[in-house]
Amino acid sequence: MEVSNRGIWQEYTPYLAFGTALVATLGSLYYSEIRGFIPCTLCWYQRILMYPLVLITMVGIVTRDEHLPYYVLPLSVIGLGFSSYHYLIQLGIIERTAACAVGIPCNARYVNYFGFVTIPLMAGTAFAIITASMALALWASRGAGRAEAE
């Protein structure tokens, strides 16, 4: 029973990562290109890490690449770090840094849904979902490999 559950995780978590990366990418493009919000420096770093995930996960799904988590996890974990850092700056827990001194300030809040949901929180949530889904896929593939060895 456990092997089949692992197979389900291994099979479908890349689709979750792809869908999440696609929605996050389209959302960021909506905010900048349609709503006219100018991204700050930390937003650009998060975009640099998120946008390639759409293509990487799509190619991994099409080619059924069992190593997909190894390609995605570094980008998603680093992106989660940038998003968390950015959100802490917006909350005022961390002071603005030199990276945020030029151009649009990183503590600016273009959106503030429900009093706490900002763009960095949305990006961080997307990175967390992608990270968790790829970690599950990695766990499932390691378990499937052990089951085949037995």
Notes on the protein architecture:
With 150 residues, the protein is an all-alpha fold. Helices cover 74% and strands 0% of the residues. It contains four helices and no strands. The chain has helices spanning 2-34, 41-63, 68-91, 119-149. It is elongated, with a radius of gyration of 17 Å. The two termini are 15 Å apart. The mean pLDDT is 87.
What's a quick, concise take on this entry?
The protein has 150 residues and is mainly α. The chain contains four helices and no strands.
Give helix and strand order, one letter per element, not per position.
HHHH
Biggest beta sheet summary: none
Number of alpha- plus pi-helical segments? 4
Mean pLDDT: 87
Q: Could you give the count of β-strands?
A: 0
Helix content: over 70%
- What's the shape? elongated
Going by helix content, strand content and strand pairing, the class is mainly alpha
The first-to-last residue Cα distance is 15 Å
Poorly predicted parts = none
What's the alpha carbon Rg, rounded to whole Å?
A: 17 Å
Percent range for β-strand residues: under 5%
